[in-house]
Amino acid sequence: MGICEISLARRGAISYDSSDQTALYIRMLGDVRVRSRAGFETERRDSHPYIDFRIFHSNSEIEVSVSARNVRRLLSFQRYLRSSRFFRGITVPNSSNILDDDYNGQAKCMLEKVGNWNFDIFLFDRLTNGNAMGFMVQEDYHSQNPYHNAVHAADVTQAMHCYLQEPKLSQSLTPWDVLLSLIAAATHDLDHPGVNQPFLIKTNHYLATLYKNTSVLENHHWRSAVGLLRESGLFAHMSLENRQLMESQIGDLILATDISQQNEYLSMFRSHLDRGDLCLEDANHRHFILQMALKCADICNPCRTWELSKQWSEKVTEEFFHQGDIEKKYHLGVSPLCDRQTETIANIQIGFMTYLVEPLFAEWARFSNTRLSQTMLGHLGLNKASWQGQQREREQRAGAAAPRLLPQEGRPS
Ligand SMILES: [Zn+2]
What we know:
Blueprint: H1 3-8, H2 21-37, H3 60-65, H4 68-73, H5 77-87, H6 105-111, H7 121-127, H8 150-164, H9 167-172, H10 175-187, H11 197-202, H12 206-210, H13 216-232, H14 240-255, H15 262-275, H16 283-298, H17 306-329, H18 345-367, H19 371-401
Bound molecules: zinc ion (ZN).
Residues 152, 156, 188-189, 298 line the site of zinc ion.
């Protein structure tokens, strides 16, 4: 696909190089309807979601009366395809069995250790035939993304599960909190396009406009999660009020994963810890801790064993560099960390660990000073030392080859 399509397809840049154009169109229909129903404030963290596919809005009587055509307009791309094949009477071999269909002994055995911090999600993904996330959630992740795919979602969910088992949390959380946290973890990057917010802004992507350039991706993940939950009917048995509360709280958790807001969350966390005033009997405090836990789960890759952590580092860098390649090709200005000519995995990881991961996990360990926290900090230290070792070697090699050309030159600050 060429640049024309990128700029023309205001809806389409999200998957400019994939076959998901139809999905975007379907999603856009949903979003446009949303936009026409209510204006969008830039700050929506505490509000009930306005997003509402009108059909599913009020009650089940309306749901029953919707036509097949209307229902299909609300489906995600993959399910849309499947349903249109169904309506056309075409049956296709199911290439994406959910967990139960293709569940072998090894995967089952592994799942018993899902609360273990050394859990190898990549192995689990292979054992389950690429269904680590399971259920309908993984269909709304883009498997072509090197990093932001269903395996990352499964990994974050597994980490969240570990945090929920920590004594301070397990003693105070309600079943509602646990359910909410796991759903938010599983859906926190739903329909991620594999490019970052600055890219969406500079390509005039419709999502950037829709969310006024603020937490664009996170808002989209949340709205996608809400759409998915409504479509699934998972909470159809709950009252409208409770469903709305669930959706709003899922939004609070997902929006907290916006890394550009990290300092605000971190200083709030730090102040609470300094004052020692966190009271987990208080629902607001509990939900704040769940936000912090999800933030930790989302960026815990450097706290895993080196073997796992290294794979994640390679995947995320691949995604960054892919974005950089597109930016170069279309003269969009290469985003920081995205230039494969000047960046290295080691540099990216060292910066990421120093400025984002270490400060967050240091506070988390103050809050929950357990063996798990010490294990995570231990891996973090070792992994950083490994990357620093690689970086030194590289610099020495570069220095030996061309003494005047430092690898730092030309790197965006
Ligand atoms: Zn994530």
